[in-house]
Design brief:
Layout lengths: L15 E16 L7 H9 L6 E16 L3 E5 L6 H8 L7 E6 L3 E5 L10 H11 L4 H15 L15 H12 L6 E5 L7 H17 L2 E5 L3 H7 L2 E6 L2 E6 L1 H12 L2
Parallel strand pairs: 3-7, 3-8, 5-6, 6-7
Antiparallel strand pairs: 1-2, 1-4, 8-9
Helix pairs in contact: 3-4, 4-5
Protein name: ABC transporter ATP-binding protein
GO molecular function: ATP binding
Keywords: ATP-binding, Nucleotide-binding, Transport
Length: 262
Amino acid sequence: MIDQQPEVVLDDSRDPIVVVDGLHIVYRVYGAGGNKGSAASALMRVVRREGRPQMKEVHAVRGVSFIAYRGDAIGIIGTNGSGKSTLLKAIAGLLPPARGGVYTDGQPSLLGVNAALMKDLSGSRNIVLGCLAMGLDMEETKKRYDQIVKFADLKPGFIDYPMNTYSSGMGARLRFAIAAARTHDVMLIDEALATGDAKFKRRSKAKIEELRKDAGAVFLVAHNLDVIEETCNRVIWLDDGRIRMDGDPQSVIKSYTEASGK
């Protein structure tokens, strides 16, 4: 158990863009206690008011504090269940804090593996809808369309196929290509690069570098530590919802791999 969080020190020479201050995120999960059975039997118990559901609290993020500065590309690492994706969702404003807070200078944009695109629509149509949802007008969307298609590097003709025919890798590439078509104040990437091949990861790294220069900050969650080390200038290691280490990529990743045996 980690009781002490790393001390947060403000760098007066840099411009803060995200401040996470004593953040706690708690999920409340309802279940049927010790009762087991099918969904149908559970529904009947609810209807009959039998076996009142019990609530369980899951403390996913525990007192996390740090400051991200303009130009930062921050990797978030940790084992499954350490709170990485929960932290990104909290920064994006999708999860309310139980205690503490998140303050951002600008609008965070979360790009996840399960980012919402319309699976029954073609990739082409999703590009248009995705760009409009990000605030681009039709003229800007048309200008960026060919660039998005080229970056996604789909199989010939697939841009006109419904997205439910895409592989997971193709869908992830298209989502990243759409999200990277505009400048973001804070870009949050959750495992979006995990299914890409080496060529796509090189292009993604170059695009993230470009976004860092033109925008605010980039946060990246990925199990592939090589991607984190090559892409980020800083790494935060989460363990059981707490920050165990925050620093330069090589030092943090080395300590993490030694501790976790990865």
